[in-house]
Write a structure and sequence with these properties.
Strand content: 25-35%
Strand order of the largest sheet: 2-3-32-33-29-27
Largest sheet: 6 strands, antiparallel
Distance between the termini: 55 Å
Shape: globular
Helix content: 10-25%
Number of helices: 13
Number of strands: 36
Radius of gyration: 25 Å
Mean pLDDT: 92
Oligomer: single chain
Length: 665
């Protein structure tokens, strides 16, 4: 009988874990902890979004700013850094850039060995920050602004966590959530002989790491598997999607965090695990403009509520220190021992390639080209011949995948990385297996079992941390691979990709258990300066005839009731002139104590900032505010901030505009 963790925790009393453990708060655990947040929001207009690979999906405003959340744990001997960023992927380029900046600031304190960077996989964040062509094609090339914003925001989060270090303690809480995910690749899942571990065909596990310091809660990391695809491929507003809403709900709505008011008192990250085949679209249909915001809120709220249950009942203190093992592996050339393969025979991974079914997209979350999943018919081989010939040896090695594009064979360098970082991070009894891909739930289960058996620890103390330190698409089981659904067609290194990961992670786990070092492995490419961009930049901005920048085009009404929408439009410049990172494009201000004070901004759920090009060099900003039911009655106004580019000098000038004051009752 499989006992639900939800049942176990249902009657748990929400006592401070230090008290449960029989020692005072901030006990002599020997740990120091720090938390921090950084803004990774890229250009809010005319920048392709990462995730759906739709060239027409370009940013045109902001609903929720995207943020990076950092945690540092130091046991007095070793230190680890954990960062979850609200991005489509954490690319190897960003990993390299962050490490370079950390080395400049801190020397060898923070390195590739003890820093774990990962992404929530929202499909509504800016893209173009990869050094590999496969992930920049739909973005129209490498976007330096996006890259700089992401690296700076991640480094800001780590720096703030570093400055926040102080004695503290940690505890683990667990529960289950069954209403926030569905298996979008059931045909493939059913092929797995070990599928019965997941009787609902989902991974319901919610694991929370609770950070406490001086008798006060300061942070939480929550791991749960569901895709960042509540917002559809028709959305053009930057959004942190369902995991971003969960973080916002906990920090802003329940912990009183105001992101623009200095250091937060509480930092809540919602990280991914093995979410490769987990969708938040429970009806297995992509969202529509009518439902996507509600689905984002609902799936996010469910994650927050589950996390809070586990957090409040977290009575298992973290004991022991921290540790880490990391190496690089050329995943295109791994000789896999028969211990890890389904037929018990040795096999080898192969040059990276995508299958035709990958071009169809995940039809449950957002379809791509009008092709069916599960394609195996060789007549489609011609699709791959456009950019590079497909050698018969590669076609055989990738079988039964019908190769569309051989990423690893492209010139002058591959379109996707093959030298990839593999890492295991230990925080007390909790082990994070950090892999650079999207792992299906059974693929993740097999890696977790391999690592747990090697370390001799319970399975529940090993988590699959996907989307970590680089990105190389999907990892399916060999059985799932054979069905060539979207996920299998996106498994780059062939049928034995998962067994290769199991083998290489087993080596890291064995070294961690023995306390021995591991070889570094091959050095990944540094592709700076070799990238192209086809996305036009800002030439200049101009205001309409008889108008000035910041002028109000559509003003507010004189009064509103709670629940109604305020909408104000302004003459503006291009958002690329100033990303306003750690700032805002809008404020809803309330009049109190004789002055106007900020009440909401573009990082709030109730506001939306939309940008529209109205003529060649003219543009408009629309600010909307859906007045929440708990809004204090009183006088309010809407203020827009932006910047415009001078046509002759190229100089950037700031602008602002203010609506009329209005009453809310």
């Amino acid at each position: 009988m499989r006992v639900s963790r939800r049942t176990v925790l249902a009657g748990a009393t929400a006592l401070p874990f230090a008290a449960v453990a029989g020692r005072p708060a901030a006990a002599a655990t020997g740990l120091r902890v720090g938390v921090g947040i950084g803004d990774v929001t890229g250009p809010a207009a005319e920048n392709g979004m990462m995730g759906y690979s739709m060239p027409q999906q370009q940013t045109a405003g902001i609903h929720l700013r995207t943020r990076a959340r950092a945690y540092i744990v130091d046991d007095g001997t070793r230190r680890i850094v954990f960062v979850t960023a609200e991005l489509g992927a954490l690319f190897q380029s960003v990993h390299q850039g962050v490490l370079r900046e950390l080395a400049t600031r801190y020397g060898d304190r923070y390195t590739e060995q003890n820093v774990l960077l990962n992404a929530t996989h929202t499909h509504s964040a800016c893209g173009g920050d990869s050094h590999y062509a496969a992930y920049d094609l739909s973005i129209l090339g490498f976007q330096q602004q996006t890259y700089d914003a992401v690296v700076a925001g991640v480094v800001d989060a780590i720096t703030r966590a570093h400055d926040d270090l102080a004695p503290g303690e940690l505890a683990v809480g667990r529960t289950e959530l069954t209403e926030a995910s569905a298996n979008r690749s059931r045909v493939a899942f059913e092929r797995n002989p070990d599928k019965d571990h997941f009787p609902l065909a989902i991974d319901p596990a919610v694991t929370v790491l609770r950070f406490r310091r001086g008798g006060k809660d300061v942070g939480a990391i929550t791991w749960f598997a569901t895709h960042g695809t509540s917002m559809s491929n028709g959305n053009h507003l930057i959004s942190s999607d369902n995991k971003g809403y969960a973080a916002y709900a906990w920090e802003h709505d329940h912990a009183g965090v105001r992101y623009l008011d200095g250091p937060p008192g509480f930092v809540a990250a919602f990280a991914q695990t093995n979410s490769g085949d987990m969708t938040p679209n429970l009806d297995l249909k992509p969202g529509t403009p009518e439902t996507e915001f509600e689905n984002t809120r609902r799936i996010g709220e469910l994650q927050f509520q589950a996390a809070k249950r586990a957090f409040d009942a977290a009575s298992e203190p973290i004991t022991g220190g921290v540790d880490h093992r990391m190496c690089y592996v050329d995943m295109s050339a791994v000789d896999v021992d028969g211990r890890f393969t389904p037929d018990g025979r040795p096999h080898r991974t192969c040059t990276a390639a995508i299958g035709v079914s990958m071009l169809a997209g995940s039809t449950e979350d957002g379809p791509g080209l009008p092709l069916p999943e599960g394609v195996k018919n060789p007549f489609t081989d011609w699709l791959g011949g456009i950019d590079a010939p497909i050698p018969q040896a590669l076609a055989d090695a990738q079988a039964p995948k019908v190769v569309a594009v051989p990423f690893g064979a492209m010139q002058p360098y591959p379109w996707a990385p093959e030298v990839l970082p593999l890492q295991i991070v230990r925080i007390g009894q909790l082990h994070l297996v950090a892999g650079p891909a999207e792992y299906t739930i059974v693929a993740g289960l097999r890696i977790r079992r391999t690592v747990a058996e090697t370390l001799g620890v319970p399975l529940e103390n090993v988590l699959m941390q996907g989307y970590a330190n680089a990105y190389s698409q999907y990892v399916t089981t060999p059985e799932e691979y054979d069905s060539q659904q979207y996920e299998g067609a996106s498994t780059l290194f062939g049928r034995y990709t998962l067994p290769a990961y199991q083998q290489e992670f087993a080596k890291l786990a064995a070294a961690m258990k023995a306390g021995s070092p591991v070889p570094h492995g091959p050095v990944p490419r540094d592709l700076r300066g070799k990238l192209v961009n086809f996305q036009p930049g800002v030439v200049f901005d101009s205001a309409p005839l008889l108008k000035s920048f910041g002028d109000v085009v559509t003003d507010a009404q004189s009064s509103y009731r709670r629940g109604e929408r305020v909408s104000v439009a302004f003459v503006t410049g291009h958002p690329k002139n100033d990303l306003r990172r750690d700032g805002t494009f809008l404020e809803v201000q309330r009049y109190a104590d004789g002055r106007w004070i900020r009440h909401a901004d573009d990082g709030d759920w109730a506001t939306k900032f939309r940008w529209t090009r109205t003529f060649v060099s003219e543009s408009r900003a629309e600010v909307t505010w859906d007045i929440p039911a708990n809004t204090p009655a009183g006088k309010y106004r809407v203020v827009h901030f932006g910047a415009w580019k001078h046509g002759l000098t190229g100089a950037i000038a700031q602008l602002s505009g203010t609506s009329r004051a209005f009453l809310v009752s």
